[in-house]
Amino acid sequence: MRFVHARSISFSSFPRFIGRALRVPIAGVTVGGGTFAYANYKFEELRNKTAGVFGDITDGLFDAWSNVQDTLPTSETIGERKERFREWLSTFNKQTENDNDNNNDNDKDIAKSIIASVAVGASLDSNDNNNNNQQPNLLMNLTRKLIEIRSILLSIDQTDNLKLPSIVVIGSQSSGKSSVLEAIVGHEFLPKGNNMVTRRPIELTLIHTPDSNKEYGEFPSLSSYGKLEDFGAIQKILTDLNLSVPSSECVSDKPIDLRIYSPHVPDLTLIDLPGYVQIAGLDQPDNLREQISNLCEKYIKTPNIILAVCAADVDLANSPALRASRRVDPLGLRTVGVITKMDMVTPNEGSAILSNKRYPLHLGYVGVVCKAPKRGIIDRLSDNDPNMTGAIMKREENYFQNNKELFNKPGLLIGTDTLRKKLMEVLENSMSSCLNNITNAVQIEQEEAAYQFKVQYNDRRVSPESYVAEVIDNLKAKLRDFQGEFSKPQVREKLESMLDDRVMNILEQLYWNDVKLNDLGKNNIESDHDNYWAYKLDTARSLLTKSGIGRDSTSLVADGIRNLIEALTDGPPFSHHNNAAERIIELSHDILRDKLSITSDQVENALKPFKFEVDVEDKEWNKGRRHVLSALEGEQKECDAKLSEIRKRVGGYRKLNNIISYLKSLDERKLNQEAEIENDGVNNNEPAWKLAYNPAHLIEARQAMKLSERLAILKLRMSTLRSSKCKFGNGDNTKVETICPEAFLTVVSEKLAYTSSLFLQIELLQSFFDQFPREIDSRLMYDLDRNAINKFARENPTIRSHLDLQERKDKLEDVLKRLESLLHLKEQDKPKARRFSLF
Ligand SMILES: Nc1nc2c(ncn2[C@@H]2O[C@H](COP(=O)(O)OP(=O)(O)OP(=O)(O)O)[C@@H](O)[C@H]2O)c(=O)[nH]1
Predict the structure, then answer these.
(1) I need a surface site. Which of 140, 285, 394, 554 has the fewest CB within 10 A?
(2) Ligand 1 centre and the CA of 299: distance in Å?
(3) Per-residue confidence (pLDDT) for residue 99, from 0 to 100
(4) Which one, of 30, 379, 327, 369, lies nearest residue 170 by Cα?
(5) Does ligand 1 come within 6 angstroms of the Cβ of 599?
(6) Residue 266 confidence (pLDDT)
(7) Residues 6+ apart with CB under 8 A from 509
(8) Does the beta carbon of 343 lie inside 6 Å of ligand 1?
């Protein structure tokens, strides 16, 4: 190793040298870094800045530095290590003094001092970090911790005052934005294509995972995709999400959140935005240019860092990215310029652009060559390393190496790796300087959220799980309450009412339209008189018992249950949970469907004996007789009421009678006409359509005629039913049954209803009300995962507001705690910063 002459350097000489030689902020040295990698990065940066001026001095120093690193025992204490570096520095000074080759070059002294001091500073920093486990170097993890905090804040608030800085990538279309981002990540994963494929902001969070070899991406708001290790799949999803914005709109400000975990990426947050366009295409909106500008404008606001991407082969004067950045950051304090496609201009031109004289940016420009070399199919197949960083870096390194006399100049920043480190440093510094402001802002928001939570909810907490459990418990409780509506007497009553209608139909069909009805109950009119009516009764019983009561009574009860479930899921809270309500209804239908046919068969079987014979006891008869009498009385009242309404509408009793008489005369005339036509084939009378009354009244009168006929029959039958002819125990009960079919059929229908209700109770109702709540638990509740429970609870706007505020309050409390602990650590870290300033 050869050391050239240098003046002896000391710790205290550092700031002066740094100030003169580096002319860049040194915050990274005093507060950042902390690892050998970081020290190496600083070295590299120095090498770039000094090599052109100071020649081979740096090489000697780098060798010395490498040796120190290699021989560092890991168990040293901070004090021991400090001592070691002092020794190293003093040996280094002595050596360089001895190595005096009569060259008293002040600049070389400076260079050596800088390099040595940076080495010591960074190493001590690293040393503190490695050896003091109780208090890890805060600032090493500052970016990572603030990125986590940023994600939490973004999940609760999109307002500007709670925003931590992120790096926003802007540039014109095809300037190389995606290529730069992919080079930083080391994978091809961004949407590609000519048809303006970046239509939404892509919020990219890179998470450095040093302890894992795995590289994967996650879309936090699309958890169903899970961890995606295939970057091609990430590219496909991003493309689909972008193209979901129709061409006619082209741009949307709804961001896509993507996180990438890898041991090869730094902790960074980057936002890729649609590229600036000059003119809109034919199928694109006219105001596309304005839309993109507005979107970029929204993102380039403070505190974000702007990564202004400009292609080397396009004049910087025409760069829309630089123009936009200058508007919001005139001094370029938070703008890093990236000159892409350095290989597309001559090295002289490239070097001139990077020297940053025409459009100076405080944070400078970094020149990159990000185009990966094209690989053939054979290369791809044999490529075990899907990571593309190596290939890009190699190409880039070759390019700059081949032109090192132009690019190895102080102040020129080149290469993707330098860019990466620069971004880490800038983001870290920016986040660090935001710490106090953001802590204050979060504290204000947290206090407000805590106050609102107290006022609105009296600090009562809810959880999606407890809400779901409450909803389901309430449903089950209501179900138990309504089960009473399906008790045995109630079901029987419903069935009786169904069968009453059926009895009335049969009576009308078989008896009340029978012209011989007046003779029913009279003695010895014709020889087969008794047989006639006995046969009729048999037919009536048969019609009633064989009318499909099993099927109909089962359907009646099943419909009742369906209506009940629909009613239960109709109002709140299920009005907020349409899917769940549908699912519950579906579940009830499934259970009923399984039970319907078996229940119907069971009921039908139980009714079989009644199809052949029905034994009626006195008590049953009397009850049936009373029942039917009251039913007929009810019908009589109904007919009377209808008749009186018709009278009112037509214009009174007399008028109605007149119309009825008129109708009767018409009917008679019609009959005569028909008879004449039948006999002579000629119609001699006037046409019947010459009407004397309002046609609506004629219709009403026809109705009145029918009602009168029905009333006459009802009166006749009620008088028979009330008479002793319809009393049991006066002789032949079978005859009584024949004379009083209304009472007999009512008794039969009551027996049928009673038996049916017994079987329906056992086969359908009990088993449904047992099974349904269990099915809700097993097929509805247990199916729900955390996300589904959360989604369900949030469907209810009241619960959603409660949960939102609660979550906001909790997250703000969490963030505040994290920020306070970072501030505390930063406070503790201050002596270290002072220490470096003493160099
Ligand atoms: N020669 C060369 N080509 C590059 C470089 N960087 C990017 N390119 C090429 O430039 C073209 C555009 O690059 P992209 O990275 O897609 O540019 P972009 O700004 O993301 O484009 P949009 O998303 O359409 O706005 C591609 O063909 C890249 O391969 C570079 O450093 N050198």
Answers:
(1) 394
(2) 22
(3) 53
(4) 327
(5) no
(6) 86
(7) 543
(8) yes
